[in-house]
Specification:
Blueprint (H helix, E strand, L loop, with lengths): L6 H8 L27 H9 L7 E4 L6 H8 L4 E5 L2 H11 L6 H13 L12 H4 L2 H15 L3 H18 L2 E3 L2 E4 L6 H20 L8 E5 L13 E6 L9 H4 L1 H6 L4 H7 L15 H18 E16 L2 E4 H8 L3 E10 L7 H5 L4 E9 L6
Parallel strand pairs: 1-2, 1-6, 2-5, 6-7
Antiparallel strand pairs: 3-4, 7-8, 7-10, 9-10
Bound molecules: S-adenosylmethionine.
S-adenosylmethionine binds next to strand 2.
């Protein structure tokens, strides 16, 4: 491709139906654990297929969530790097891209057997614990978490992810996206059975990856404070940033984090766009998002090779009654980049948060930006 023009990639991108109406079902690893606002795999896949990635570079997702971009990179044999603040997201991304631990189902059975015989596990101090979890479930989850803690290293991440995936199911929380407490009639035995099933499902999803697992690195931390010398060189960025007042990743995973011994409040404090930041004494505004995206592009400029593309998927949000076009904010933050393509895509109804549905926001924008070459920047 010419270093100056990428008219042919823009033409290729223009031919794609970004709603992916043909999409039928989740492939194995896409569905191993719930995550709000995750990419459908087709989206990063289409970008990776259509745009060039310079040899010797990696693809970077600075808000990698559950690792959809990273897993798609592996499928195409491209090295990748991701950062996310949320430890559950990082756990998903790591497990999806790591080798399948052999004997995972047996390891899960051993853990479940030991946990059943461990009625004295320490139950963590979780706010409103009895409101959300029946006592026998508390004991089962605590014993599973404690037993997994002493399982061999090779299995720990996968077993923690299997446990995380059942937490909402065995709680009284109505569903992943509904916070009403309801009676679900689950007992401790169900918790062990569901854990074993989750481990078996995970094992078979990991086994379906019939391609070599090239390097994929996941950093847990704040992208806005990330040291660029830890990564690079980067040939392409594919990401979807969190945006104001739309989703609450920390809240979604709050119970899961508690059971895995992680601290949801420290995630909440640094989470870009979390609703809580918009309802405090000095509320965040769209200007805060503009500053956060400027910082994100400061990082991207330090690692992305000239001529490399940065692809952002971003929606609108409603802040204090006003609809904010976050795509325009991202575009403005991208100093030194040219917009080479953009498209509007429908957000699937099941992926719209309550806040987005309430504001009648039904589409999001794909922006493909290209870093100017050094000599013409
Ligand atoms: C739209 S989601 C990304 C979903 C991802 N594309 C996927 O397929 O799973 C945005 C992500 O940004 C993360 N995030 C929020 N604030 C962050 C920060 N300060 N640093 C790094 N990640 C952050 C959230 O935890 C969330 O996972």
């Amino acid at each position: 491709m010419s270093p100056y023009g990428d008219a042919s990639s823009s033409r290729t991108l223009a031919k794609i139906d970004w709603d992916f109406p043909e999409r039928v079902a989740h492939s194995g690893i896409e569905g191993i654990h719930p995550y709000p606002a995750k990419f459908i795999a087709e989206l990063p896949r289409a970008l990776l297929e259509s745009l060039p990635v310079a040899p010797g570079t990696a693809v970077f997702d600075p808000f990698c969530g559950g690792g959809t971009t990273l897993a798609e990179c592996q499928r195409r044999g491209l090295p990748s790097v991701g950062i996310d603040l949320n430890p559950i997201a990082c756990l998903m991304a790591r497990v999806k891209t790591a080798p399948r631990p052999s004997g995972l189902k047996d390891a899960a059975s051993t853990v479940a057997d030991c946990a059943r015989r461990r009625p004295d596990a320490k139950i963590p101090a979780i706010p409103n614990l009895d409101h959300w979890f029946d006592r026998p479930i508390q004991v089962a989850l605590a014993s599973l978490a404690e037993t997994i803690g002493s399982a061999p290293d090779a299995y720990r991440d996968a077993l923690r992810l299997a446990l995380s995936s059942i937490v909402v199911r065995v709680s009284r929380q109505e569903s992943d996206t509904r916070y009403a407490a309801i009676d679900k009639n689950v007992d401790a035995d169900d918790a062990f059975t569901l854990f074993l099933r989750a481990a078996a499902r995970l094992d078979s999803a990991l086994a379906q990856r019939d391609y070599p697992l090239v390097r994929s690195e996941v950093f847990e931390g704040d992208t806005l404070a990330f040291d660029p010398s830890r990564i690079g060189p980067i040939g392409m960025v594919v990401t979807s940033p969190p945006y104001p007042n739309a989703y609450e990743y920390w809240l979604y995973h709050k119970h899961r984090m508690h059971w895995l011994g992680l601290d949801p409040l420290s995630v909440k404090a640094r989470e870009i766009g979390a609703r809580a930041h918009f309802f405090k004494r000095n509320p965040h505004t769209a200007d805060d998002f503009a500053r956060q995206m400027t910082k994100t592009f400061d990082l991207i400029r330090k690692v992305l090779t000239p001529g490399g593309h940065a692809c952002f998927v971003v929606g609108r949000s409603r802040i204090h009654g006003r609809i904010v076009d976050n795509a325009r904010i991202v575009e403005k933050a991208a100093a030194g980049f040219d917009l080479v393509f953009s498209a509007e895509r429908t957000i699937p109804a099941r992926r719209r948060s309550f806040n987005l549905s309430h504001a009648n926001i039904k589409t999001e924008t794909l922006l493909v930006l290209r870093r100017r070459d050094a000599e013409c920047a």
